Amino acid sequence: MAINKLNRRTVMTYCLSLLVAGAIFHIFSSQGLAAGFVQGQVERYEFRGVVVSVDKSKNRATIKHEAVKGYMEAMTMPFLIKDQKAMDDLRAEDQIVATLVVTAEGASWLENIKFTFRGPVEPDAAGAKKDEEGADKPYWLMGSPGNKRVAPQVVSNFDDPAGQYTCSMHLNIRSNTPGKCPRCGMDLISVEPLIPEEFNIEFDVMPKTPVPNQKVRLHLSVLNPRNGVLVKQFAMMHDKLFHLFLVSQDLSDFQHIHPQQIEDGSFVIETVLKRPGLYKVFADFYPLEGAPQMLQLHLATSGWEGDVLAEQAKLTPDTNMIKTVAGLHVTPENADKLGVEFAAIEARPAGDLKIELTLDPAPLISGKTSTLKYRLTDAKTGQPVNDLIPYLSAWGHMLILSEDQSQPVHAHPEEQIDLEKPAAGQRGGPDLSFDAFFPFPGNYRVWAQFLRGRQVYTVAYDVKVERL
Predict the structure, then answer these.
(1) How far apart are CA 110 and CA 90, in angstroms?
(2) SS3 call for 76
(3) Which of 127, 190, 242, 250 lies 20 to 30 Å (CA to CA) from residue 282?
(4) Which residues touch 421 (CB under 8 Å, ≥6 apart)?
C-alpha cells in the first residue's frame, strides 16, 4: 500500500517521535544549549544560482548553480525550498543568493534566499507585467550584461555549452542539431524540455496489501504535471520505456525490472516482494515532453508494524572489495521482465563471477565525479571474463543508493557496445568503469549488474563517501 495508507500505530509512533524531539529541543533551548546542538548537526554554504524551473507542489526548484566552495562542483539539480514566501516568489530565470544547509544525515535545503535579478513574469489577465523591462540589471551568472534576458541552459558542465542537443548517457556531448551520439549511438535529446517539472505517478497495487513471497501486480500511470493527463509517449532508454527498481528498507531485496506498457499508455508488472516491511520504489523513465527522471514511491507489505525512521538501514562500509556471486537464471518467461534479449544469451549457463571493485578516488568524495572500476574473473578458473553479453544496450548497469534511500543514481559503464550490431555477436569484459556522482557525504550501497551465459549477476558493495 502507499505510504499515506500505513497503519494507525505507525503514524502514532512517528508523531510521538516528533513530539519527543520537540520537547528535547525545548529543554535544550531553555538552557541556552539549543544553538550549539543544532550547529553541530549541520553545515552551511554560500550558494549562488539561476532558477531553471519551479515545482510549487513539491516545494522544489531546479537551479543551475555555481561551485559551492568546500562542498560541490557547479551543476544543475533540484533543491528543497523551506521558505514558503521565497517559494511562492520564485520563477524561472531568477538569479539568487542563498544558504545551502546540509545535515550530517545528508538532507539539504536552501534558506535565506535573496534575489539579485528577477526573471520575466507571465502577463496577467489584463496583459500587464509586474517587472520593469528597462532597468539595467546585472546578469552575473550567465555572463550577459544589462537586462539582456538569455534563458539559462538546463544542464551545465558541457564541453560545448552552446549546443542545444545532448546525449542522456554522455552529457559532455553537445550538438546544434539533432542526431546520434558519436560515442554510444543513442539519439540526442534537447537540453530544454517542453515541460521541465517533475511528472507525477499514480501507483496501484494488487492486492492492496502485498504478502511477502506471493505475487503482487503493480500498475503505474505517469501524469502530465500541468494538466493531469495520462502520458502515453516515452523515449526508449536502454532498450526499455520504463525501468523500475524495488528496494526493501533494509536494502537486502533489490530488483531491477521492467513493466510493460498497456493500451492506455500506463505500465503493469507482476513480481514478488521477498522481505516483509517497507519498500522504496524508483520509477526511471523519459516522457517525450519532459526530461529523463527518476521518481520515488513507497510500498509496504502485510504484517509490517515498524517505524519508518527507526528501521532505516545502517550500513557498514566494505573492507573486502572482492566478492563472488552466483547469477539469476534467465528463462523465456522472465527474460522480458529482467530486460534480457533471450536470443543473445548462451545455450549453457556460466559459473560464478568473482568481482573486484576499485574506487577512484579512494576514499570517495561528495560533490565530485568518481570512477568505480570493476574487474571480472571466472570464480572457478580464475581467468578474466571476456564473454559478457550486452545487457539493456550496455555492458552493465549500476544503481547507487544512499543509506536513507533518498539519493538514487543510475549509471552505466564508459565502455560502449556497438548499437549498430546485434547483441548476440558482441562480447565484453573483463574491465568496466562507471562514472558516478555522490551528492552528499555518508554511506551508500552500490549494486552492479552484468549478463553472462544465461544469468544476470548482481553484486552489492557498501561504500563511504567523505565530505569534500
Answers:
(1) 12
(2) strand
(3) 190
(4) none
**3-class DSSP state for residue 342?**
helix
364 vs 356: CA distance, rounded Å: 16
Q: Which amino acid is at 294?
A: M
Domain assignment present for residue 222? The answer is no
The domain containing residue 90 runs over which residues? 42-122+133-154
CATH code: domain of residue 83: 2.40.50.320
pLDDT in tens, 213-272: 999 999 999 999 999 999 999 988 888 999 999 999 999 999 999 999 999 999 999 999
Q: How many domains does the chain have?
A: 2
CATH code for position 465:
2.60.40.1930
Environment class of residue 213 by beta-carbon count within 10 Å: exposed (0-12), middle (13-18) or buried (19+)? exposed
pTM, rounded to two decimals: 0.66
Look at residue 77 and tell me if it is in a domain.
Answer: yes
The predicted model gives 122-143 an average pLDDT of 39
Q: How far, in Å, CA of 357 to CA of 425, rounded?
A: 27
At 128 the three-state DSSP class reads coil
78 within a domain of the structure (yes/no): yes
**Could you tell me which residues come within 8 angstroms of residue 28 by beta carbon, excluding any fewer than 6 positions away?**
34, 37
Residue appearing with cell numbers 563471477: 353
User: Comparing 149-163, 196-210, 246-260, 271-285, which segment has the lowest mean pLDDT?
Assistant: 149-163
Identity of residue 459? V
At residue 249, φ and ψ (nearest 5 deg) are -65, -30
**Residue in the structure block whose three cell numbers are 534566499:** 113
Q: What is the pLDDT of residue 106?
A: 66
Structure-model confidence comparison of residues 340 and 11, the more confident one: 340
Integer distance in angstroms from the first to the last C-alpha of the chain? 39
What pLDDT does 450 receive? Answer: 98
